[in-house]
UniProtKB/TrEMBL annotation, chains A, B:
The keyword Chaperone does not apply. This is Alpha-acetolactate decarboxylase. InterPro entries: Acetolactate_a_deCO2ase. It comes from Methanolobus halotolerans. Its EC number is 4.1.1.5. The gene is budA.
Length: 284, 284
């Protein structure tokens, strides 16, 4: 962190304390125009963040489908918005999984690599995972059966859910994506030749989301799951699995924050297409 | 503001200052799991809010189309997220316009009423308006011509734009919506009999947004504009207008924050429908 930031934060904190002490935050001022951070905005921001109930997203899935692969947000920034999540890397260089605040890169060899804070992402969705419900899986289920089981645990279909499954798996079929060179092909072209991996008799963790249909174009409606082994050596985007036992944590999420890239690559892309069918292809 | 909030904010500020003084914020800790607000989350939140570049939204347009009209977020809270915006009121009791931090309620008589902080909204979108570009309208234009003029001022079609037009109008045709009683009808039923108003030779301000197509289901793709007269006595949802001269401010917005309601009314509604055609009907 730079000294300049230190000074700014310090000044904001002092102003918040001063505002509280002098009792300046009242209803009369709450609607005032502000060019900079006010005590009330700071309060609002802090109140929001104290909930940990935010799905924070970089870019849109439509942009990724269109081949907008240059990373803009670095992982140091991303981790400030969540300790749990999925995504990819600049140049579409593998599948990303974040777990317990540590980010892993599953490259096209299926191996999990460490990730530097200076690495960047063109698309990611993270949250501070804090399970609202925890349940046990005690009998063998494949992916489809697990999805039905998860569905019964979700109180409704209109909010967002972060999902964490810690378990013992008969098998997990994953895929990753190879790093692309410019001009970038569309995602549906890349995944036609995606490398897939079969992990057998393995302990590990599934990390991902179930999102409502109204996120279409912005993120992936329904389930989107990544996997990493217990020893954090392998994983990828989940295609299929058989779980024998495990624990399921679900984090009901009512807040969504999307950060749109400022790169010309993003701004010039065509995000108006109906990408439903392409999305179905690339997720399989 | 309650004493409890005061104490929490004060404690957060102290912890931020303590963290800064002791130099505890470094890269090594940035990925840590946090149950509560950490100095780094606070920093992140404050950095975000200092940008004023956030479109903050309550609920989804699909929920409003389905008749989810009970307000949940009060205007005191909403104003913490913006001094400019549009929306509606609990029970669909009129059109909302916020300008310079003051909220107005245009009821079904076309008159603008003051709004108490304790009143609530089922759907609203606000931002801290800070124009990136300012341009002049110097020749007469109708709505369609003005939309073309605005389109030429937007650098791309992939981010969100807040729009403010301060001008002299030959006429402005607006509509409002009457307060509904339960069981709430769908929005498309309500707007079939909407009261419309013709304001002639009037100065006033148009407040609204142009949003990308990928917000479909979440908000209104394209233009969504409300109007209020210069003397703040009348207005509504804009159907048509003729402007003779004015100033146009556009605020390019790269960040989007959506707060989903926790009410059963929202959670139990069917948000899976394709609402494109209904939306077109209710916006006219």
């Amino acid at each position: 962190m730079t000294m300049r930031k230190n000074i700014i934060i310090f000044a904001i904190c002092l102003s918040v304390i001063f505002t509280l002490v002098t009792g300046c935050i009242d209803e009369a001022e709450s609607g005032g125009i502000s060019e900079n951070v006010t005590g009330q905005q700071a309060e609002s921001a802090l109140t929001l963040y104290s909930s940990n109930d935010i799905l924070y997203q970089v870019s849109t899935i439509n942009a990724l489908l269109e081949g907008v692969y240059d990373g803009e947000t670095d992982y140091e920034s991303l981790k400030q918005h969540g300790d749990f999540g999925i995504g990819t890397f600049s140049g579409l260089d593998g599948e990303m999984i974040e777990l317990d605040g540590i980010v892993y890169q599953i490259k096209d060899d299926g191996i999990a690599y460490p990730v530097n804070d200076s690495m960047t992402t063109p698309f990611a969705a993270v949250t501070f995972f804090d399970a609202d419900t925890e349940d046990l899986i005690t009998e063998p289920m494949n992916r489809s059966q697990t999805e039905d089981y998860l569905a019964a645990l979700m109180p409704n279909r209109n909010i967002m859910y972060a999902i964490k499954i810690n378990g013992t798996f008969d098998y997990v079929r994953t895929r990753s994506v190879p790093k692309q060179e410019k001009p970038y092909p569309k995602l549906v072209e890349v995944t036609k030749d995606q490398p897939t991996f079969e992990l057998e008799q393995v302990n590990g963790v599934i990390v991902g989301y179930w999102l409502p249909s109204y996120v279409e174009g912005i993120n992936v409606p329904g389930y989107h799951l990544h996997f990493i082994t217990e020893d954090r050596t392998a994983g990828g985007h989940v295609l299929e699995f058989g779980i024998t036992e495990g624990t399921v944590g679900i984090d009901n999420t009512h807040r969504f924050f999307m950060e749109l890239p400022k790169s010309n690559e993003f701004l010039d892309s065509d995000l108006t297409k109906d990408t439903g069918s392409e999305l179905e292809q690339v997720e399989k």
